[in-house]
Design goal:
- By secondary structure, the chain is α/β, with parallel strands linked by helices.
- It is built from 20 helices and 24 strands.
- The strands form six sheets. It has a six-stranded antiparallel sheet with strand order 2-1-4-5-6-7.
- Helix 3 (143-151) packs across helix 17 (1094-1111) and helix 4 (158-165) packs across helix 16 (992-1055).
């Protein structure tokens, strides 16, 4: 494989199309400086994919396009193509010959071509991987790259070696794999997050979906039963209505006949009634007279009966009182006899108590005598014991005194030696005390001044700290409140945004249509998205719109028809469309008059805002709707305009034309109109809260910084104060100690001199006291012995006396118990006697009261008897006058009875006719009501079927199941009730949950599969990266050793001796380690590259390039004046070594050195015959120019 040709057009200085053809071996390109020969190397580098304008000696990629000269215009593009012979198929492509081209335009567009086919940069780069050809390879070397190899960091040489050892393609693959791995990880994180969210949704949606399916199943069953019920009831009501109409006709005819007969009967009845009234008047007058007489007589008889009853009552009371007097008298006698019995018993009991009292007193006196004797014996024993104890105490005291005197003698001796020592110490301390006190006084004054300053400073800091803390607390409270508000608003905003984007709250058909909005430009949106309304009018306008709020607005009928076909085709349900081209505005008659009515807020279409293109739509939907402030004014307005207006109130009540009223609460609390307004308000509020939160955070941080600084200062001041306090306390203690020591030292010194004489005197006294104490101890021991003998005799007498006292004490206790029993019995008898005497007194008082009542009853009986006799004589006189009036009344009554019989016949006939008319009226009313009720029930049934299922009677007949089992009305009603109960038991139903669950479930399954695939891909990519790392390490290690050996050999050949080595940087990964070049030219010490001359550096770099070429020859190599810094001798060596490498590599060398030209097989000359335009010329012309 070798480079056959290069074609340039518009590239840098090669304005014209220029073709350079090459053969195997060495081809030289020569020419003066600035002729453009290096542009050939740039062209090859550019066509192989160089993206850096700086590497092409420009500032931007546009600089590679011919920019024009004084005589030529700039070109619009640059084009370079290289043709490579691929007959040995070293390149992984089936073509024998390969042409790679690149074209760029001034507009910035560019393209790559492989054999005329547009390709990618990646395709070009992958094509030349591991061949040494490419922008990272070693097939194109210029002077800049020589400097980079030599002067750059060890890490910068890495690319050259990677290409040489053949791991560039692995690194590219690794980088791609790592990039893909990162992408897979990101995708995995994203998919995992989505899966976790979907897992939270899928459970509730599953339950909601099952509930919705159950609801739909029940609703379908209910629909079938409702249809059956509707048809049965409709037929029954229709039949009943016809029957009622027939009966109504019959009743109306009967009523007309009866009314005529009733009118004739009424006239005759009136005549008879007048005659009866005349007779009745006379009879009533007589009856009134008789009635008055009878009333008086009955009143007298009633009073007589009452008086007789009162006499009987008084007589009975008198007998009762006498009977009670006898009972009371007997009771008094019995009680007195009982008192005499109790008194006799008390007299006998008193004698017994007196005898027992004497015996008891005698026993107690004897017992007291015995107790006195015992007490005297015990007292004597106690006195003797006290004498013994006193003797023992005295003896012990004597012993203690003796021991104390011995101890005192020892202490006196010790005290004498201590006195001498203290006198010496006091003399030495007195000398330095005064000096120390003066020093402490000065230090204390300094500390007090410093403390006062620090305390004032500390108070200021504390005050400042409180202010800062209060400020921080205020900031935190405000910050927490605003953060909570922000999170609440953000959560609500995201929820509303999601709801709005998904068109939640709308029917399934509406959501499906809005999904097609992007694909169908004719869809404008739903009504709720188009109109805007103030919050105060939202409820009213939403009520006025009703179901129209979900209508879809389209540009024309064509779009509406298209969407209806879409809904039918996919069975997504129904929707209402409002094409702007076909809807006509609706206006309200008497508009100005209505607006002036009390309570009218306005016309609904004027209370909303929308784009001018939707004004007709607003009038169509709301132009005839009046908005009132409240229900009372709405009702007044409706009545005034005879229920011809559609009125809504601000609270959402609706009055329809015809008089129907709707109101209450909404089933769905979602406000479709208010969503966008609420979102805009929340977004504004959130932005304002963001700004406020940022400011508060900044202020809080500043306050915390100030608090920390203040706290640090307080801590520092407190440490200083603590140190001052410690020093001050130390000084205070030391001064007090010194002063107390000085005050006591003088007195102590005087005391010490007299203390010695006192000690001598005390020694003599102590010896005298000891002798006296020994005599006293002997006397006390003798007394103790005598007292102990007397105690033994007294104890024997005490024991005998105690035994006699115990026997006599038992007898005395028995007498006391008997005496107590008699005393209790005596007290009981006294209490009973007292009680009976009180009862006798009460009975005597009652007897006297009863005697008075008996006398009073006798007087009352006498008065009542006299009054009865007077009333009976008066009653006999009234009875005589009543008899004559009764005879006259009987005559008139007989005459009236005859007339009444005739009158009654007419009355009964009139009443019968009247009752018949009334019954017929009621029957007609009932039949009319039943007929209307049938019609109303039929209308209600039809309305119910339309509202619930959008079914008419004929449609219901079509849907009726002919093969279904016939059920009775009661069975149908029972089934309907059970179904409704079951539906109600399901609770709130989300019908969209079925579709949402299906979508979420499908999405979850898809994402779960993606998740598993991503996990698997991650594992595979990790394995690929590991395998690539292992392969690269092995290949780099193996080939680097070969390059090291080649570099040693080539370096020695080019330098004519010396030593050159390559080393990897220590402690670095072999895949990333930099490469250090160490050169030791002949006759010189081993030294760093920076210490070599320019020629030595260039030759070292050339040696490295030739070493790499020896390991892995590139198909061709383009060298751009890399030998420019060499002297002639080294140029000859360089040229000679080139010839050694031509067997495997084609060399294209750009040079102006004759030694290199001599080594070339073919020479191309580049010159600028036209200023600014490079061209190929004959070599002879170039040679002549060079020799001038």
């Amino acid at each position: 494989m070798y480079l056959k040709s290069i074609e340039l057009q518009g590239f840098k200085s090669f304005a014209n199309k220029t073709v350079l053809k090459f053969n195997k071996g060495i081809t030289g390109i020569v020419g003066p400086n600035g002729s453009g020969k290096s542009n050939v190397a740039d062209a090859v580098r550019w066509v192989l994919g160089e993206q850096s304008a700086r590497q092409l000696r420009g500032s931007k990629m546009e600089d590679v396009i011919f920019s024009g000269t004084e005589n030529r215009k700039p070109l619009g593009f640059a084009y370079v193509a290289i043709t490579i012979d691929n007959s040995d198929h070293k390149l992984p492509i089936d073509y024998e010959e390969l042409t790679v081209a690149r074209r760029v335009y001034r507009s910035g567009e560019s393209e790559y071509l492989i054999n005329g086919h547009i390709s990618r940069l990646k395709d070009v780069q992958e094509l030349f991987f591991d061949t040494g050809i490419g922008k990272e390879g070693y097939s194109i070397i210029g002077q800049g790259q020589i400097d980079k190899i030599l002067s750059g960091k060890p890490e910068d040489r890495r690319e050259l070696f990677d290409e040489a050892v053949g791991i560039v393609k692995y690194k590219k693959r690794k980088a791609l794999a790592e990039k893909n791995l990162n992408i897979e990880k990101q995708n995995l994180y994203r998919v995992t997050d989505i899966l976790s969210e979907l897992e939270k949704q899928i459970g509730p949606l599953s339950r909601q979906s099952e509930k919705a399916r159950e609801y739909l199943k029940l609703r379908d069953s209910l629909k079938a039963l409702d249809i059956q019920m509707y048809l049965s009831e409709y037929a029954r009501l229709k039949k009943a209505s016809a029957e009622y109409a027939d009966k109504l006709n019959i009743a109306q005819n009967n009523l007309e006949t009866t009314r005529k007969a009733l009118e004739a009967a009424r006239l005759e009845y009136g005549r008879m009634e007048a005659a009866l009234e005349e007779r009745g008047g006379r009879i009533d007058a007589l009856k009134n007279q008789i009635s008055d007489i009878q009333l008086e007589r009955e009143k007298a008889e009633s009073e007589i009966r009452l008086l007789k009853e009162q006499v009987r009552s008084e007589e009975a009371a008198e007998g009762h009182y006498k009977e009670r007097q006898a009972q009371v008298s007997d009771g008094i006698a019995g009680k007195k006899q009982e008192v005499s019995q109790w008194e006799q018993e008390m007299t006998g009991l008193a004698d017994k108590i007196a005898a027992l009292q004497d015996a008891k007193d005698q026993a107690e006196n004897q017992l007291d005598s015995m107790n006195g004797s015992i007490d005297k014996l015990r007292q004597a024993i106690e006195e003797k014991n006290s004498d013994v104890i006193e003797s023992l105490n005295h003896i012990g005291s004597v012993k203690a005194k003796l021991q104390r005197y011995d101890t005192m003698l020892e202490q006196i001796q010790i005290r004498k030696s201590e006195l001498n020592q203290r006198l010496l110490t006091m003399q030495s301390e007195a000398a330095s005390r005064e000096e120390t006190l003066e020093r402490y006084s000065r230090e204390q004054k300094e500390l007090d001044a410093r403390r006062e300053y620090l305390q004032k400073k500390l108070a200021d800091c504390h005050e400042k700290g409180q202010m800062i803390q209060k400020q921080i607390d205020d900031f935190h409270d405000t910050l927490n409140a605003k953060e909570q508000e922000y999170h609440r608003l953000s959560s609500r905003f995201q929820t509303l945004q999601g709801i709005t984007e998904r068109y939640e709250g709308y029917g399934n058909s509406i959501r499906r249509i809005m999904e097609q909005k992007k694909q169908t430009p004719g869809i404008i949106g739903v009504v709720a998205d188009i109109i805007k309304v103030d919050k105060v009018y939202e409820t009213a306008v939403e009520t006025a719109l009703g179901g129209s709020i979900q209508n879809v607005v389209t540009k024309d009928e064509k779009t509406a028809k298209l969407m209806i076909d879409f809904l039918k085709r996919n069975r997504f349900g129904r929707a209402t469309f409002l094409p702007l081209t076909s809807i006509l505005p609706k206006t309200l008659p008497e508009r100005e008059r209505i607006l002036k009515e009390n309570g009218v807020v306005g016309i609904a279409s004027e209370l909303i805002s929308c784009g001018p293109e939707f004004d007709g739509l607003a009038d169509y939907l709301l132009g005839r709707v009046v908005v009132a402030d409240h229900m009372d004014n709405a009702l007044k307005l409706a009545r005034k305009y005879r229920y011809s207006l559609r009125i809504v109130t601000l609270e959402g009540e609706s009055l329809s034309p015809g008089g129907s009223i709707s109101g209450g609460t909404f089933k769905n609390a979602s406000n479709l109109l208010g969503r966008h307004r609420e979102m805009e308000e929340m977004e504004t509020r959130m932005e304002r809260l963001k700004t406020e939160l940022a400011l508060l955070n900044r202020q809080t941080d500043e306050a915390h910084d100030a608090k920390r600084e203040n706290k640090r200062r307080i801590g520092s001041i407190q440490e200083d104060l603590q140190e001052i306090g410690l020093k001050s306390n130390t000084i205070y203690v030391n001064v007090n100690q010194l002063k107390s020591s000085a005050a006591s030292q003088g007195a102590t010194y005087k005391e010490l001199s007299g203390e010695s004489d006192e000690l001598k005197r005390q020694t003599g006294e102590i010896n005298t006291f000891k002798k006296d104490l020994l005599k006293e101890r002997e006397a006390q021991e003798l007394l103790k012995s005598e007292a102990e003998g007397a105690i033994e005799v007294l104890n024997e007498k005490l024991e005998a006396e105690i035994l006699r006292q115990q026997e006599f004490s038992g007898k005395t206790s028995e007498l006391g118990i008997d005496f107590s029993g008699y005393i209790q019995k005596q007290n009981f008898l006294k209490e009973n006697r007292k009680r009976i005497l009180e009862e006798i007194q009460a009975l005597e008082r009652e007897y006297e009261e009863l005697s008075g009542k008996v006398s009073e009853c006798k007087c009352i009986i006498r008065e009542k008897t006299e009054k009865i006799q007077t009333m009976e004589s008066k009653a006999e006189m009234m009875e005589t006058g009543d008899a004559s009036l009764d005879k006259e009344l009987e005559l008139l009554s007989a005459e009236r009875e005859k007339m009444t019989a005739v009158h009654k016949q007419f009355f009964e006939r009139r009443e019968n006719l009247s009752d018949r008319c009334s019954l017929l009226d009621k029957e007609i009313f009932r039949l009319e009501h039943l007929s209307e009720k049938c019609e109303e029930d039929r209308t209600k049934l039809s309305n119910y079927m339309w509202d619930e299922y959008e079914l008419t009677y004929n449609k219901a007949l079509e849907l009726q199941k002919t093969d279904s089992e016939a059920l009775s009305i009661e069975d149908i009603r029972r089934w309907i009730s059970e179904l409704k109960k079951s539906i109600k038991g399901l609770g709130n139903i989300n019908l969209n949950a079925i579709e949402e669950y299906k979508d979420v479930s499908e999405r979850y399954t898809m994402l779960k599969t993606q998740h598993d695939d991503l996990v698997e891909a991650e594992g595979k990519l990790t394995g690929i990266i590991h395998d690539l790392d292992q392969a690269m390490r092995e290949q780099f290690r193996e080939n680097f050793v070969k390059i090291q050996e080649n570099f040693k050999r080539v370096f020695a050949e080019l330098f004519g001796g010396g030593k050159g080595t390559l080393e990897l940087m220590e402690d670095a990964d072999i895949l990333d380690a930099g490469i250090r070049i160490i050169a030791q030219p002949p006759g010189k010490k081993l030294q760093n590259m920076m210490q070599l001359s320019g020629g030595e550096k260039a030759l070292t770099a050339i040696a490295l390039l030739f070493a790499i070429q020896s390991l892995k020859p590139s198909p061709f190599c383009l060298l751009d004046e890399i030998e420019a810094a060499l002297d002639d001798a080294n140029v000859k060596r360089y040229a000679r070594y080139l010839n050694n490498l031509t067997e495997d590599t084609q060399f294209i060398i750009i040079t102006h050195r004759r030694g290199t030209m001599n080594a070339a097989d073919v020479l191309y000359g580049v010159t600028m015959q036209e200023k600014g335009v490079s061209a190929l010329v004959s070599v002879n012309l170039i040679e002549n120019e060079l020799t001038k």
